[in-house]
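FW: tagging you since you asked about this chain on Friday. Here's the raw sequence from the shared folder, copied in full. Didn't touch anything.
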Amino acid sequence: MFSIFKPYIFSLDPEIAHDLAIKSLKFNILPKSIFKVEDEEILETTFLNTKLPNPIGLAAGFDKSAEVYNSLFKLGYGFIEVGTVTPRRQLGNPKPRVFRLEKDQALINRLGFNNHGSEIVSKRIEMNPPIGFLGINIGPNKDTDNKEEDYYLCMEKLSSLGNYITINISSPNTEGLRDFHDQKELDKLLSGINKIKKEKNISKPIFVKLSPDIADSEISKIIELIKKYKIDGIIVSNTTDGNRNALSDTKKNEAGGLSGKPLKSLSTKLIQKFFRETKSKIQIIGVGGVDSGNSAFEKIAAGANVVQLYTGMVYKGPGVVKDIKKDLISILKKENLKNISEAVGINA
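HL: got it, structure written out here
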């Protein structure tokens, strides 16, 4: 079905197409059964002490304001991450701000954390409890006087509603956000996160979403702080500011974060580095260029416990998860692996 409609969808502005997708998912009419595959039990995995049906998640950025996560679970995802959610409603950057690079199977976006805000999002999730494993990605408002305080406000408002919280310090589209990769700034932020957790009795797992553009010398410093503050895991990675030289599409020089296939090897190598240095003690969510069983397996074999996608669904449609599951099952059987968890880090 998607292949029939794809030319029409791709004739639309990417943001209009996205809005149409959100509206259509609100009807919630697709039966979950059509996205199941044979021998799917081989993909069951335990993540954060919870059994997931498979390790394939939808990354933050698609369901920014937590409008359609339960419809998305029915597409076959093992888990969903909503957001990025900011304390107050935010319109984001001026349009146009999303660009398809079809020749490169990529997207560039400079959306700027457009979302309905923590008040509306929290009420929405309370009224519509998740039917699956839900992560909530949080960040600061663009015009805030105190970015750290914005993270704390979102933590307090949203932590009880999801299975884990992601601290997004890596979007290239909010000025100064990536400064939190600096050891001193990250130390201050994570110290504050732990203080809020203690004061408000918050026990939910915390993940930090990292940039793919960090230097190798920063990895050990980040790991040191992740361990110091007992952060549960990292997401590797967000979109990239660079990696444009080999691109073919004329839109390659648009400002914003690049996602999709050009990010694949960059994020996989970074996953491998973090896995080696943490000696598999920290949970890793792998993101960047996942659109097939092979690309998902590469991330897992490099050290990711689970993976996420977004751009892959833009180009391959809602059936992409079913296809990835089929491919992964074939790969596992070929490799004589009895379960997907056995593949974690085997090529690290």
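FW: The longest strand covers residues 79-85.
HL: agreed, and The chain has eleven helices and 13 strands.
FW: great, closing this out.
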